């Protein structure tokens, strides 16, 4: 039975808005410079903008979304602490473009120095865990694996008695080099290929280190219920003492910790892939049960579910748990591995003189160890949506290229360039990081439903029961081809329209809000009709 809608292979997928609403989040990296909010004397009205989310709007449930991103802190205390750390006066603070989970601030120091501050929003998870995990991760990467990441100057959790800021925060050095997004358009193909080699070498270091469990990194003295992070004997002698300071504790993975998921309780750590994926399925069951009784008032009817659908959905997840031991990959593909999940142009800095060399990788908040087969993916900086020839096949220009118009030829050349870069990454990884590619190979069979189901289960509470039921049907081979395809077609129509109208949670930029709301209002009846059709098929 063919699948007509392929889910994003990640637990934290954000469907792109295409066709009806377009937006770009590329500029949300915390180090991108812009005409931001700058404060020197801190009037209350301006200071409040530091606490609020100001980078976009939501089409529904906006009050709740904004409250999850509102965090107050003592601005003067933050500036005073930065002054103590650098030994010079802080003379200004600039709010940088914010992501969905953090406030990012640039603190200008007398004499031209600068300190960067990150303050997690409430929706990022428990602030003490989020900050202590990020600090420990940066320390481990920098001092155990020799991976270029920002240097932490100071940090504190909100529960610390010596924290006058009143919120969790991290102070770090501004990284050297230039943001890749600033120079990408000027790079030759040869330079981009050189950059691929640099990133593959960093990923090789991550994949080759064997972690003892699935969860997130912490300092040993701050996390009692934990495992030693690594078997130190796999490291050079000079690195073993540094590695002994770290443990694997409960995960800060977004799907376990963000928003209402903070209340689910069980966050590991886990020893095996089976334990971890069982916890994922049970988490989704809890979320579905909670949503049945605690829906936001202004969630559109088109994304609500009936009680019958909820009960069926829970039973499907229980079937997945029963099936899990029989469908898991085996061997090294299940080993716990730490990977960066968002390697886009704004999160990579390159050497100013030689852009093939990576000077720093930023934004390691909420990274976690997980089975390698779930972590293995193309970095977004080298990924693309063009049809991709997997394996030894080289991308080529279209057969009818000579008959295309000049504009079509230009588009075809750009697509070919993207595919060549992606192919070079694949081949470089096959040579220098073969374990990663072996895991990716195992998940590339589009005719095997198990190549989708592990990812789909992790987002099942938001995606609904139909795609999960389709894949389970294929695995059990209990249903006929016609019915399964009918589900897939219906789900594809519903999901495409929902993603175009609402994205993941209704977010749009400030500039697009009025137009987006008008479009949503004009199409919401269509979305409701498609939702009802899905329920009938379920």
UniProtKB/TrEMBL annotation:
Gene3D superfamilies: 3.90.1200.10, Phosphorylase Kinase, domain 1
Aminoglycoside phosphotransferase domain: residues covered: 93-368
SUPFAM superfamilies: Protein kinase-like (PK-like)
Protein's organism: Aspergillus flavus
GO cellular component entries: mitochondrion
Location relative to the cell: Mitochondrion
Coiled coil segments of this chain: 510-537
Protein name per Swiss-Prot or TrEMBL: Altered inheritance of mitochondria protein 9, mitochondrial
InterPro entries (alphabetical): Aminoglycoside_PTrfase (IPR002575), Kinase-like_dom_sf (IPR011009), Mito_inheritance_9 (IPR051035)
Annotated keywords: Coiled coil, Mitochondrion, Transit peptide
Family from the record: Belongs to the AIM9 family.
């Amino acid at each position: 039975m063919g699948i007509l809608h392929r889910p994003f292979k990640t637990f934290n997928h954000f469907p792109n808005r295409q066709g009806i609403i377009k937006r770009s989040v590329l500029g949300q990296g915390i180090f991108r410079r812009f005409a931001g909010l700058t404060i020197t004397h801190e009037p209350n009205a301006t200071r409040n903008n530091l606490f609020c989310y100001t980078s976009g709007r939501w089409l529904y449930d906006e009050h709740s979304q904004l409250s999850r991103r509102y965090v107050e802190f003592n601005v003067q205390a933050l500036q005073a602490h930065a002054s103590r750390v650098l030994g010079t006066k802080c003379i200004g603070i600039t709010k940088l473009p914010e992501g969905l989970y953090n406030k990012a601030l640039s603190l200008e120091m007398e004499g031209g120095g600068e300190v960067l501050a990150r303050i997690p929003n409430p929706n990022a998870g428990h602030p003490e865990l989020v900050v202590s995990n990020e600090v420990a991760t940066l320390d481990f990467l920098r001092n155990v694996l020799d991976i270029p990441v920002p240097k932490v100057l100071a940090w504190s959790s909100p529960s610390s008695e010596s924290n006058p800021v009143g919120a969790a925060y991290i102070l770090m050095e501004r990284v050297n080099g230039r943001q890749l997004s600033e120079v990408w358009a000027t790079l030759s193909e040869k330079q981009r290929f050189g950059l691929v080699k640099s990133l593959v070498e960093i990923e090789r270091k991550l994949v080759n280190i064997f972690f003892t469990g699935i969860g997130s990194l912490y300092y040993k003295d701050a996390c009692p219920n934990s495992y030693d992070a690594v078997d130190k004997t796999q490291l050079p002698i000079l690195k073993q003492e540094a590695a002994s300071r770290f443990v694997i504790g409960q995960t800060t993975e977004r799907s376990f910790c963000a928003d209402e998921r903070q209340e689910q309780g069980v966050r590991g750590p886990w020893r095996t892939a089976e334990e971890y994926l069982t916890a994922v399925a049970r988490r989704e069951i809890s979320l579905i049960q909670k949503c049945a009784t605690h829906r936001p008032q202004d969630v559109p009817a088109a994304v609500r579910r009936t009680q019958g659908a909820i009960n069926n959905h829970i039973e499907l997840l229980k079937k997945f748990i029963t099936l899990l031991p029989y469908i898991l990959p085996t061997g090294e593909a299940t080993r716990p591995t730490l990977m960066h999940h968002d390697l886009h142009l704004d999160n990579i800095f390159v050497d100013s003189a030689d852009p093939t060399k990576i000077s720093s990788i930023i934004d390691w908040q909420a990274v976690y160890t997980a089975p390698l087969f779930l972590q293995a993916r193309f970095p977004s900086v080298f990924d693309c949506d063009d049809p991709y020839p997997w394996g030894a096949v080289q991308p080529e220009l279209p057969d009818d290229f000579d008959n295309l118009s000049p504009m079509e030829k230009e588009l075809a050349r750009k697509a070919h360039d993207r595919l060549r870069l992606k192919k070079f990454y694949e081949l470089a990884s096959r040579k220098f990081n073969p374990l990663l590619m072996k895991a990716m190979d195992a998940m590339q069979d589009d005719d095997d439903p198990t190549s989708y189901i592990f990812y789909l289960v992790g987002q099942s509470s938001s995606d609904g029961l139909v795609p999960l039921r389709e894949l389970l049907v294929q695995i059990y081979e209990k249903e006929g081809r016609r019915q399964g395809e009918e589900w897939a077609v219906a789900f594809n129509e519903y999901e495409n329209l929902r993603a175009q109208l609402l994205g993941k949670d209704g977010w749009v930029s400030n500039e697009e809000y009025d137009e987006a709301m008008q479009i949503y209002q004009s199409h919401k009846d269509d979305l409701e009709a498609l939702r009802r059709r899905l329920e009938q098929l379920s």
